[in-house]
Design brief:
This protein is mainly α. The protein contains eight helices and no strands. The longest helix is centred in the N-terminal third of the chain and has 28 residues, at 35-62.
């Protein structure tokens, strides 16, 4: 059981959620987007939201600014969250601009807002679950897309509910978070996506 819960926590790391959102969008959108553009966007997201943060993490670890990729303490969260906010800003300004793919543009604005709120909470010594933040934000975006495009994603919704429960269980079992921290993380992920939904509907 320990191995399974640790695997869930590792495989469903927050770094993968922006990519899942992009892949989900391109798999469900009824709009025609040339394959070369889709591939270029996906490559950019992998580079900026996965590879670059991992490289930054190893740099911060070398400088003894962080101890673990899970950012267990509040103090070690602050700098990575700021750096991640800068990276997401690059995505918004360079990869998914407002006049190109507006759904993904606002998806990443929602991620940026969630990241900044999480940073502010860390400054005030409040810890929120970044795992739940990322997963719930993706879930809300997927739900919004289904409403916008009028598509049936009941299977995806059911799967995401199971995954959200699995992530919460794994974080509790590993004693990485308390119930309030999981709830705060979920709300920080959901609310920005929900509020931004009306801007691209």
């Amino acid at each position: 059981m320990d191995f399974i819960l640790k695997s869930i926590s590792y495989v469903l790391h927050p770094l993968i959620m922006p990519l899942l959102g992009v892949l989900f969008y391109f798999s469900k959108t009824p709009r025609f987007i040339p394959e070369n553009i889709v591939n270029a966007k996906i490559f950019s997201i992998i580079l900026l939201t996965m590879i670059l943060p991992i490289l930054v993490y190893y740099l911060l670890k070398t400088l003894k600014k962080v101890d673990s990729i899970y950012l267990k303490t509040i103090n070690e969260r602050k700098l990575p969250l700021l750096i991640n906010a800068f990276i997401i800003s690059l995505v918004i300004l360079r990869v998914f601009t407002s006049n190109e793919i507006k759904e993904l543009h606002y998806f990443f604005i929602g991620i940026l807002v969630s990241t900044l709120v999480c940073f502010v909470l860390a400054v005030f010594k409040v810890k929120a679950s970044i795992h739940m933040l990322a997963a719930s934000g993706f879930f809300m975006f997927a739900l919004a897309l289904s409403i916008n495009f009028k598509i049936n994603i009941n299977g995806t919704i059911a799967l995401m509910m199971v995954l959200l429960g699995a992530i919460a269980t794994s974080r509790l079992h590993l004693k990485a978070h308390t119930y309030p921290e999981l709830i705060i993380g979920s709300l920080i992920g959901i609310i920005p996506q929900l509020l931004l939904f009306s801007t691209w509907l």
